[in-house]
Amino acid sequence: MGQYIIRRTLIAIPTLVVISFVIFIILDLAPGDPTASLPLTVPPEVRERIRETLGFNDPFLIRWFKWMSQMFIAEPLNATEQVFNVSLGDSEERLRILSWSSRAPVIDTILERLPQTIWVLGTAFILGVLIAIPVGVISAYKQYSAFDNVGTFVSMAGYSMPVFFTGVLAIVIFSVWLDWFPSFYDTTHKVTDFDSFVFQLKQMAMPVGVLALFNAAALSRFTRSSVLDNLNEDYVRTARSKGLRENRVLLRHVLRNSLIPVVTLIALQIPGIFAGAIITETIFRINGLGKYLIDSILAADIPAVQTLTFIFAALTVFFNLIADVTYGLLDPRIRYD
Amino acid sequence: MATTRERTEETTGLDQRAEEKHRSLWGDVWRQFRRHKGAMVGLVLLAVIVFGSYFGPWFWPKDPFAIDTSLANLPPSVESPFGTDNLGRDVLARVMVGGRISLSVGITAMLLSVFIGTAIGILAGYFKWLDGWLMRFTDLFLALPILPLLLVIIMLFRDTLRAQFGPELGIFLLVVFVIGITSWMQTARIVRGEVLSVKEEEFVLAANSIGTRKRNVIFRHVLPNVLSPVMVAAALGVAVAIITESALSFLGLGFPSDFPTWGRLVTDAKDTINITPARVIWPGMMISLTVISVNFIGDGLRDALDPRLRSR
């Protein structure tokens, strides 16, 4: 197993390099210009100098290597410096990935936006799992009962309704008609006392609810089929014939075995959730990573797009790895050689 | 041939009844498919939506592009059952036109993605020396962050393609192409798995041993036997493509607003949602209903094409 983890991690590194190269090629075709957002009064010589200092005129491969060194050497060093409050080498001279539109280091903006995204997405994700697993288990255990039929239909509907539609619908119903929740997310809001905490809950309710419904839909269907597969196994009959109580059979024997593939799916879903963030954050105007990505795309801010897309790709690769490893750890029948 | 059959019929006592009872493979599939309630409801619903989108304008001959600001933001009424938008255009007519585009995008993108997926799956499964490379390639695509990349590609090539093919066809080709080339991976994986097992079957060995050309082995023996997962993938692929297209339009990077698709209609309507909620609800509902019916059809197909279930 250890060997397998090491091998998979080693394969992940060239994959990420290739991915960053592919993203770089695609972005290189962009007609983006770092000086496009400057006022028209800036003379052409100055524009040229700005391009020069940003390294825009370098050959393609040089720019790619520069980006790689900034991403994998400069930024980690910087992070270490900030965490431990020390100075490593010539930290003043070190080049960071700079956004073309804000001229600020991209990583700083990402770290600033990350908490909003994690808060909303994380809560939605956990809530989704907490809904999906009991629903899936009960649906499977009482197959074709009213609960199962309703559950199947709701999850099919939740799975089929695009998030941007359910989101807009939720705004119409809960914010315009019922006036329960605010229609957009106030990122600057700080939780200081009970009232502001209640407000925080209120403004989180809709984005979290919409995303949780979507996540729970696919997961509960998957849980249901996994439990159904296990209910027909011989070990369940054995457990029952030993006289175990039904609760114990279901929760100890069946659930444990059925959750193995579910855990894998959960790990595989996480990167998709970050992609879903782009849409959710646009609807509810949450100032998170997804919003940052779409804003950078619309502003043709190539360094920011490159970095963010790469981070999304790294998350995908990482969670794929986690999924495979947990599958091997949880299921001793799986042997990776 | 005819005489041999007559003779066998005489000797075995088979009469016309046996002939009538003859069941074809697709007849069996259809019989099983009809038993799946959800799939039948989905099929009817989809047929209604497709019919409404393509032939609806004959029954509802309002011009979806006619601007009349004196009729702006009207609530649903007999004249315009879904209301009008901020420029006085009839929403029902726009939903119909939008449906045509959304469905065409979904179907074309699905065809492209299924074609690529099946081709790569068959090549990887059949030719051992290609397998490693093609699967590595598939894994690479699976690790790409699809939605961000789609957005980036569309932003980059939108203007070039519009200049090349005109505003409508250009963006249509671009959207179909990017959705197609980023959604074939699952099909490729499933097809490869099926080909790997079909390849070991005796009929393939027989075909090979009588000297059938590789091309014919693939097209006559392997391909027909992996069609069932391909069909399921195709059904679900339409749903994925429609959702992706509408998400792109929603984010402002799909079709332009003078070119209504369901996703675009939701986007354009979301700012006036407290005045005319019907403008959001109908196109959104159409997307959801189409996707839900396609998903149910996919479910039904999967059951119908699985011979283990069919015997029940």
Give the second-level CATH assignment, the architecture of the largest domain in chain A: Orthogonal Bundle
Sheet with most strands of chain B: none
Query: What top-tier CATH class of the largest domain in chain A fits best?
Result: Mainly Alpha
Supply the number of helical segments of chain A.
Answer: 11
- In which range does the helix fraction of chain A lie? over 70%
Largest sheet of chain A: none
Helix and strand arrangement:
The complex is a heterodimer of chains A (337) and B (312).
Chain A: H1 2-28, H2 44-53, H3 60-84, H4 106-141, H5 146-160, H6 163-177, H7 194-231, H8 234-241, H9 246-284, H10 289-298, H11 302-330
Helix pairs in contact in A: 1-11, 4-5, 4-7, 4-9, 5-7, 6-7, 6-9, 7-9, 8-9, 9-10, 9-11, 10-11
Chain B: H1 2-12, H2 16-20, H3 25-35, H4 37-59, H5 91-126, H6 128-143, H7 146-165, H8 167-181, H9 185-198, H10 202-209, H11 214-225, H12 227-250, H13 262-269, H14 278-305, H15 307-310
Helix pairs in contact in B: 3-14, 4-5, 4-14, 5-6, 5-8, 5-9, 5-12, 5-13, 5-14, 7-8, 9-12, 10-11, 12-13, 12-14, 13-14
Describe it:
The complex is a heterodimer of chains A (337) and B (312). Chain A has 337 residues and is mainly α. Chain A has 2 domains: 65 residues, no CATH class; 224 residues, MetI-like (MetI-like fold). In chain A, 75% of the residues lie in helices and 0% in strands. Chain A contains 11 helices and no strands. In chain A, helix 5 packs across helix 7 and helix 8 crosses helix 9. The model of chain A has no long low-confidence stretch (mean pLDDT 80). Chain B has a single domain, classed as MetI-like fold. Chain B is globular and about 75 Å long. The longest helix of chain B has 36 residues. In chain B, helix 10 packs antiparallel against helix 11. The two termini of chain B are 35 Å apart. The relative contact order of chain B is 0.14. The mean pLDDT of chain B is 81. Chain B has 312 residues and is mostly helical. At the A-B interface, helix 1, helix 5, helix 6, helix 9 and helix 10 of A face helix 6, helix 7, helix 12, helix 13 and helix 14 of B.
